[in-house]
């Protein structure tokens, strides 16, 4: 069974919607294989977002997430990587399809409620970082 990593980001944590988000994965038949509430350090965020180091939004992204409560999930199921990405919606909530998590709960391109691994290699790498 394919596994993917989801992060429930600080904006969603503060909106008190973690149950609603987790339900959206479960309703599509995906299973929460592992779950952890974490207050991430800069170090773990740099590892997780290594491909974005140096980009113009990187420091703001770190500021948004460092030292704030988040939830890391391992989500399991057939094609879980692409199904989670469909459920999450486009990175920019203003471009996300209706009914997706980012459409419903995202604020802007940074405060977009959730992260989901982009592909199999990232899923493996990211699960190792958080679990
Ligand atoms: P995520 O899917 O976790 O991957 C990288 C994160 O950087 C993204 O969601 C957003 O939270 C944040 N971000 C902020 N600005 C941008 C941008 N212009 N393009 C992509 N990601 C951005």
Write the layout of secondary structure elements.
Blueprint: E1 2-8, H1 10-14, H2 18-27, E2 31-38, H3 42-48, H4 58-65, E3 70-77, H5 80-88, H6 101-105, E4 114-116, H7 120-130
Antiparallel strand pairs: 1-3, 1-4, 2-3
The chain binds adenosine-3',5'-cyclic-monophosphate.
Throw out a few tags for this protein.
4 strands; 131 residues; 20% strand; binds adenosine-3',5'-cyclic-monophosphate; four-stranded antiparallel β-sheet; 42% helix; Alpha-Beta Plaits; alpha+beta
Walk me through the structure.
The chain has 131 residues and is an alpha+beta fold. It has a single domain, classed as 2-Layer Sandwich (Alpha-Beta Plaits). The protein is built from seven helices and four strands. It has helices at residues 10-14, 18-27, 42-48, 58-65, 80-88, 101-105, 120-130, and strands at 2-8, 31-38, 70-77, 114-116. A four-stranded antiparallel sheet has the order 2-3-1-4. The longest helix is centred in the last third of the chain and has 11 residues, at 120-130. The protein is globular, with a radius of gyration of 13 Å. The mean pLDDT is 98. Residues 52, 57, 61, 91, 109-110, 112, 115 line the site of adenosine-3',5'-cyclic-monophosphate.
């Amino acid at each position: 069974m394919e596994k993917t990593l989801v992060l429930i980001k600080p904006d969603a944590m503060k909106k008190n919607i973690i149950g609603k988000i987790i339900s959206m994965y479960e309703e599509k038949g995906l299973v929460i294989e592992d779950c952890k509430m974490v207050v991430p350090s800069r170090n773990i965020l740099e590892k997780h977002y290594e491909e974005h180091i140096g980009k113009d939004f990187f420091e703001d992204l770190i500021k948004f997430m460092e030292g704030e409560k988040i939830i890391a999930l391992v989500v399991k199921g057939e094609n879980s990587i692409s199904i989670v990405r469909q459920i999450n919606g486009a990175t920019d909530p203003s471009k996300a399809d209706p009914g997706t998590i980012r459409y419903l709960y995202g604020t802007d391109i940074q405060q977009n409620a959730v992260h989901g691994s982009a592909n199999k290699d990232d899923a493996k790498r990211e699960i190792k970082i958080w679990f």
